[in-house]
Amino acid sequence: MAALIDRTSLVNRELVLGGIVTSIREGRTKRDLPFCVAKIEDYSGSGEIPLFGQDFVQWGNYMHEGFFLLIKARCVPRKYNEEILDIRIESIDFLNEVKDSLIEKFTIIVPFEVFDENMVEDLSSIISSHPGKTQLDFIIKDVSENIQVGLTSKKGGISVQNDLIAFLKSIPDMEYKIN
After folding, report:
1. Cα distance between residue 100 and residue 1, in whole Å
2. Which residues are bridge partners to 48 per DSSP?
3. pLDDT (tens digit, 9 = 90+) per residue, 109-166?
4. Pairing between strand 85-94 and 105-111?
5. Is the model more confident about 103 or about 88?
6. Are the CB atoms for 160 and 108 separated by under 8 Å?
7. From residue 169, how far is each of 65, 95, 109, 166, 174 by CA, in Å?
8. What are phi and psi of 37, to 5 degrees?
9. Fewer C-beta neighbours within 10 Å, C or N terminus of the chain?
10. Mean pLDDT for the stretch of residues 26-54
11. What's the pLDDT band for 102 if we cut at 50, 70, 90?
12. Please, what is the average pLDDT of the chain?
């Protein structure tokens, strides 16, 4: 989303944007037509996407605070003023509906120091409650010995859910990668 600030490098490129709608400004144009400007945030920052005219009619219902969206768009020069660059939306999906097909592999990096029976049981319980198609890998690392071991789950995949991410963030030095 932060890349939307300087649009000159994005001209005529396909954009794939994902994030959470954090605010909406709605109003009326000089010709009394409705519009909205959605502020969307991701890990890189935030950007705004204005919707006017037919874009507002077609995509406006997706623009509500708290919605997680995957937006496919293109940065194009405005029809009557080519110096102004607009984001032209081509499709919008709810991120939760498409994430499993987009995330190919989820890797959990476990520090050897926190690797114990309780942590394994808790993690196993969360993972088993969210079966899915995403490949699950583990890296057990011992920083003091500079050793790491990679493992791949053979039981099946997972569906990455918020409670798994929250659990991983709650354990000091636990990391994860989405590939």
Report:
1. 21
2. 39
3. 999 888 889 988 998 999 999 898 889 999 999 988 889 999 998 877 888 888 888 8
4. unpaired
5. 88
6. no
7. 24, 21, 11, 5, 7
8. -125, 115
9. C
10. 92
11. confident
12. 89
Residue type, 124: S
pTM recorded for the entire structure: 0.63
Selection from 105, 111, 108 nearest residue 148 by Cα:
111
Q: What is the pLDDT of residue 23?
A: 96
Q: Which two tokens stand for residue 49?
A: 């996407």
Region 2-98: CATH code: 2.40.50.140
For residues 39 and 41, what is the distance between their CA atoms, to the nearest angstrom?
7
Q: Burial level of 15, CB count in 10 A (0-12/13-18/19+)?
A: middle
Torsion of CA 9, 11, 14, 19, to 10 degrees: 60
End-to-end Cα distance, the chain: 19
Q: What is the 3-state secondary structure (H, E, C) of 60-125?
A: HHHCCCCCEEEEEEEEEECCCCCCCEEEEEEEEEEHHHHHHHHCCEEEEEEEHHHCCHHHHHHHHH
How far is CA 5 from each of CA 80, 140, 153, 157, rounded to the nearest angstrom?
A: 21, 39, 41, 37
- Name the one residue in this structure whose structure tokens are 């709810």: 94
Going by the DSSP 8-state scheme, the letter that residue 170 receives in this structure is H
